[in-house]
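Input chain follows. Return structure tokens only.
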Amino acid sequence: MGAYLLRRLLLVVPTLFGIILINFVVVQFAPGGPVEQMLAELRGEGQTLGRITGEGGGEIRAAPPGPGEAGRAPGAGGTGPVGTYQGARGLDPAIVAEIERTFGFDKPAHVRFLEMLGGYLRFDFGRSLFRDRPVVELIIEKMPVSISLGLWSTLIIYLVSIPLGIRKAVRDGSRFDVATSGIVLVGYAIPAFLFAILLVVLFAGGTFLQWFPLRGLATPGSEAWPFWERALDYAWHMALPTLSLVIGGFAGLTMLTKNSFLDEIGKQYVVTARAKGAGERRVLYGHVFRNAMLLIIAGFPSAFIGILFTGALLIEIVFSLDGLGLLGFEAAIRRDYPVMFGTLYIFTLLGLLMQIVGDFTYTLVDPRIDFEARS
């Protein structure tokens, strides 16, 4: 197992490199890079947009746009020489050059990529282009929100779905089984973000009641409260976002648990245990449970990462939760490349490591599994 885990860890490096490289190449051909966005803002606003820090440390002011001049260009992320931006027409070339130099686009793409990789080896993701803060600082600040949302949602889904799936397997074909199947499938059919909007309308001051807060994970000023009050306040803020993610996650795990138990119950060793006089509870929890739960328990890391990566983004937007999903979304909109690639790197690294943890969990649940022998 040790050699297998070592090989998997070594594969993380080329996998990360390939993902970052592919996304970097794609971004070079995406229109509306940070240089074009800044040029468009300068031309559209005609006023000081703030200080752009760099070697020159100068303040960039927009020149009034000329009549009939175009807006920003569909450039390739600002990799071309000064003057190739359509949005640069009417602006002093020195201003365009300063913007390119400040954002780092005065260098060839391959040089910027190698410098980015060098920083990533030191976990230095640079500074946000528009927030003027280190990317690592932003990620550390936003990560607790996303981890809280993903962790609590995954735990609640498991704590409810596993007992429900076992009960459905034991009472397969009964009215209880049919009724609960209908309920979980309806929940699965409703997208999490639509259910989140419904909860906001009903319970967060949208139209009817205002029982729950709509923003953040803590009430302003709660830092000075006693621990138990802060814990209740945290649960109060987490209730609706967590419920939004949980409601659609029940179906898959519940049906997987039920089918796993039904598959094991029909095997020969269960028939043998019953023939020897073992009680139904002993057969179910002493023999079937361990084998049936192998796939379910070992899939916990992957389920957590799935909720963290996919479902949490829209939930964070709906409930104004300032987490990694919202940070990455805003960075993509503004073409804040350091933040985009920094969050991509963290998400990819977490996903790859959680896959390894999932394999290791298989061996903990069932020591008979030997990945080393398979390889």
